[in-house]
């Protein structure tokens, strides 16, 4: 993945601001001040998600989780379409904001704010 990622950063003129590191986030993550993980965890079931959050928790920095999060209520929201898509392609559902908070809690984090970024993504802080 690194050559592909490198091209993206070069095209955006950001190469001097990043260090690209390969790795398996179920095993360990490089040291950091915070971990931003986007669109990765909704692919995994609860057990695997808690395993991954456990690796991040033990790394000792806050987590900024950006993913599809179903808000409470019965209003139209993109995440509800994604929920159906995930049922078809992954055999599992998307998660509500409360379900994400419970998962990070199960891994030892304290959940913070949920920030709705756009129609598709929300960010959950976890400390
Ligand atoms: C749906 S993509 C999201 C990519 C990017 N974060 C985005 O939002 O466009 C899921 C990413 O999870 C990465 N991934 C899956 N399993 C992984 C693992 N065990 N360790 C590290 N990365 C992994 C894949 O390489 C892929 O880049």
TrEMBL record:
Gene3D superfamilies xrefs: Vaccinia Virus protein VP39
S-adenosyl-L-methionine recorded as keyword: yes
Keywords assigned: Methyltransferase, S-adenosyl-L-methionine, Transferase
Keyword Methyltransferase found: yes
Superkingdom of this protein's organism: Bacteria
InterPro entries in the record: COMT-like, COMT_C, SAM-dependent_MTases_sf
Residue ranges of domain O-methyltransferase C-terminal in the record: 4-110
Pfam families linked: Methyltransf_2 (PF00891)
PANTHER family the record matches: O-METHYLTRANSFERASE CICE, PUTATIVE (AFU_ORTHOLOGUE AFUA_4G14580)-RELATED
UniProt name for this protein: O-methyltransferase C-terminal domain-containing protein
Organism: Kribbella ginsengisoli
Lineage: Bacteria, Bacillati, Actinomycetota, Actinomycetes, Propionibacteriales
